[in-house]
């Protein structure tokens, strides 16, 4: 080596290769250039210190606007800032295109300003294979793409959805052929998901430590992106892991860090089947997508953790239905609300009861309690209260109490919990000086609705107690669906001394009873009427029993998996895709938790003959005159498809007359039993009203102005048959009607007499009649 041959000065070398130097001081607003840089910018060929505005005027405005983005990206990645700029003359013509390569660094107080030092060199055309020059249209496409990508990633709710969105992104001007998202567990890389590769291709990367010479490991370890523009560059920088990547036949790779919350949670790989030089614009797009992808994955991970926690909490609190019940099938569903923590206060339960039925011999048949309820709210506190209340109900039921006693104890239990919120756990008061609770304390006071049924599967007898909950729904053997009114009391937790009367229902073979919370009816903007119509349409869809082709016996459509299928279809009608096409009439479309419990008594449970008819039973107590309207509604529902509407009106009128007579002329309660049998078109309706009085009615001839005495006259004129049957205690008055086409009923003198004796009464008149009976 000859030491006298020293290297030339750097400035001379740069001048020899037509490369200028420049320094841009953002804090001072000045640009320092040498003579060669001045020549390239179309200025006098001499070194100078120029204001930033002078230099900016020499560049195309679109290119100048790109400098800030390129510099920001270079600062983030700790790399050189490289950008191509068009130099303009005073008339707006392009003189030449220069390439700037510079090293940015932050300076000044708070390191907010930037000092940019680098070179300027003229370039005649882009290198072979490089992308075309950046244009305004490309930038607009990039902005639109980033907006769409951000919106799609923000809407993704799970990790799988995030990966599907990332795989479907089509970047402007360049789109990767293969994608992979790497995570970190301890000191190892994990493959969260990939696209563009075959299943199983990720196996060689599963046990890779962060110390491995692999681009994704480097990115996670250092937090800096790695861009590999060619297979040669990949092989040179990562010779140990190049064989793993070479089999995918890719030409370029970009590995970017996924940073969320200030920490690197993984790496994102974008691989291309063609050569990509990763210009600053392309790096900017990839970096922005990586940031959005990291935020989306972080949100999805947090949401999945929260869902797993709340699902586990809800599964722990909700029971399994336990062993099968002889002669009865049971199905249940719970669907949390779609928003928030997806945990709420709805629940259902099935409780085996001890011993026989309250002094009655059951032949050793096991009785069960079925419970459904709804604690106010859709939060963790509602779920906690639900768990406490459910345990208390199980304890009271296990002690052998009747349904009314179970709910009476439950309301005292919940009232006690709410009282502790008011007076404090130590007996002190949480009230303020004015004697009122703070607003947040009022928000924590809750109530609960509940419906409790004690069932005897062998007889189908159900004893129902209700605390502010929706009434049960009965699906009869022929597919008719009725809302079954029951007496009830206040919701639990409002009045510690509330009473809950019992209503007895008999579930006939082939009938199904549905218990549900209000979310099943009102979700989707429905009120109670339209929501019940939606539920009724689903429950009626299985149709009546049909003869089996093999043995000729009636086939129960809800036996086996039929009840489970009905439960699924009920949930789908409220939360499935079809629910969005049939919204309710209300503007408020909020969602609510849904709990539904179905009990079906097997069609052949008794072993006797099976008749596919309709039957309803309603008890009217002496102090419940207003419930006569419920009885009329029940009878109309039973006759909803009766051929002659005038006959329906006549039957309702006769029923109202008989029930009113019971409340007016006796001291006991009235029992309605209505049954409809036969095929459509030739059916027969039988209505029985029983009371405990032994006094038999007598047919009278009322005067023109008389206000009573027409009951038996109406029966004689409007019914096809009627009678009075004495019973062991009391009597039963009944009437029957045969179905016929409109206009084909009684004619002539009987019809005219009926019109004279029975003036037409509308629903309001019938209500006034029931009110008068109650007052008497």
Automatic annotation (TrEMBL):
The keyword Transcription does not apply. The keyword Hydrolase applies. Residues 6-78 form the PAS domain. InterPro entries: Bact_Sigma-Reg (IPR052016), GAF (IPR003018), GAF-like_dom_sf (IPR029016), HATPase_C_sf (IPR036890), HATPase_dom (IPR003594), PAS (IPR000014), PAS-like_dom_sf (IPR035965), PPM-type-like_dom_sf (IPR036457). CDD domains: HATPase_RsbW-like (cd16936). Keywords: Hydrolase. Pfam families: GAF_2, HATPase_c_2, SpoIIE. GO terms for molecular function: phosphatase activity. This is SpoIIE family protein phosphatase.
